[in-house]
Write a structure and sequence with these properties.
single chain; alpha+beta; Uridine Diphospho-n-acetylenolpyruvylglucosamine Reductase, domain 2; Cytochrome p450; three-stranded antiparallel beta sheet; 15 helices; 14 strands; globular; Cyt_P450_sf; Cyt_P450; Cyt_P450_CS; iron ion binding; monooxygenase
Length: 401
């Protein structure tokens, strides 16, 4: 058995590797899922790998909550900029960018105003569905679903940002300036770009993965359809209110289970900003160390989900009582067992908007079409390094009526 090398006292164990410079990079790029699983089982939580010329630490189910809870120590945006150097590419537009300010804006002006945006979102979603899927009297095969869904999702987002009552008004009123010059316009573009980039890219990916999860599991179709039909019949001519969306308990549980199964293997690192940090298990990480969140370890933990953690079971998020009452853990809820949207003070404030948009679009699609995979089987997502992306396979759409 090879010796476990430690960089310094109390640091996470550095997993041994064969080739200098390359380290674990090749295995991480080509088989991150098995590499991280084996390392976690053998070396515990957390552990370190040598990838991309640096020692990086991976935090599993036990350590992730500590990373997210201490957001002042573990900075997400520093790590994000190493992976997606947006601040470098758009430097002139990001000079005054503040993640705290943007988070407050999203919470106050989007998530807290879903009742205002619901009708507009539906209108744009229906227009997108009609444009890209239309009448499927005969079964139609649609390829490149992810791209199509990004086009459908982006229009409602644009309507919220630049609509009748939008967040552009908020930015203008908050600017405290009466001079519209290049600097002001650059700052405005930077703020809006960040919101659009984050919302469209993530929402369309998770939405597409959810469509594939639905299309490959016929055992879920009837129950989900019946719930959507009941809500549709009880709504104002099919024009959903936010209260109607909140009644979609079974659909919400389905979306949450899809998100759990879509959890990236390991995601964007959080960089240690303090001199060091010691976790509750006594292990210490030094300043500037990148901490990757090993999300799959948490999402499929038997500690949280029991022996069926690898199975797709939406009802695991639901508790039914003898009096007919149903209580469920919503897809927007962040806890130790479900951290798709982060956690602590930095939990994604846009998750309420994203989940509601996904649910509304699924609601409309399920009511209108029978949707299935070409093979009639479950189509798993593709793995790109440590991230799950939707399959290139086609989906078959057919009118219900």
């Amino acid at each position: 058995m090879p010796e476990i090398f430690l960089l310094s006292k109390n640091e996470p164990p550095l997993v041994p590797y064969k080739f200098p410079i390359i380290g674990h990079t090749y295995n991480f790029l080509h088989d991150a899922e098995n590499l991280l699983k084996e390392c976690k089982e053998k070396y515990g939580d957390p552990f370190s790998l040598y990838i991309f010329g640096n020692v990086v630490t991976f935090a599993g189910a036990d350590i992730i909550p500590e990373v997210l809870k201490n957001s002042d120590v573990f900075d997400f945006y520093t790590g994000l900029n190493k992976i997606f150097p947006i601040h470098v590419v758009f430097k002139q537009f990001m000079k005054n960018y503040s993640s705290t300010y943007t988070a407050r804006m999203v919470q106050e002006q989007i998530s807290n105003k879903l009742n205002i945006y619901t009708s507009r979102l539906q209108k744009e979603l229906l227009l997108g569905i009609e444009k890209f899927f239309g009448n499927c009297k005969e079964p139609k095969i649609f390829k490149n679903i992810h791209y199509t869904m990004s086009l459908i999702i982006s229009k409602p987002v644009a309507n919220v940002i630049l609509g009748e009552e939008d967040i552009l008004d908020f930015y203008i009123s908050e600017s405290e300036t009466h001079v519209v010059d290049d600097k002001y316009l650059d700052n405005l573009f930077g703020e809006l770009y960040n919101i659009v980039f984050a919302s469209v890219s993530t929402t369309s990916r998770f939405f597409t993965l959810a469509i594939f999860d639905y299309a490959g599991r016929p055992e879920l179709w009837n129950e989900l359809y019946e719930e959507q039909l009941k809500i549709h019949n009880e709504s104002n001519g099919g024009n959903l209110s936010i209260e109607d969306v909140n009644k979609m308990v079974k659909l919400d549980c389905f979306v949450k289970e899809s998100l759990r199964h879509s959890a990236d293997i390991a995601i964007i690192p959080h960089t240690v900003m303090s001199d060091s940090f010691t976790f509750s298990n006594g292990i210490t990480v030094p300043k500037d160390r990148d901490i990757y969140l090993y999300m799959k370890d948490s999402a499929f933990s038997n500690k949280f989900f029991g022996e069926t953690s690898n199975e797709f079971q939406p009802k695991r998020h639901m508790t039914s009582f003898s009096n007919g009452k149903i209580v469920h853990s919503p897809a927007t809820k962040v806890d130790k067992s479900f951290m798709m949207f982060g956690g602590g003070k930095r939990a994604c404030p846009g998750r309420f908007f994203a989940i509601n948009e996904i649910k509304m679009c699924l609601h409309k699609l399920i009511l209108r079409y029978n949707i299935r995979t070409e093979s009639g089987k479950i189509v798993p997502p593709k793995i790109k390094t440590s991230t799950y992306v939707p399959s290139d396979s086609g989906l078959i759409f057919e009118n219900r009526n």
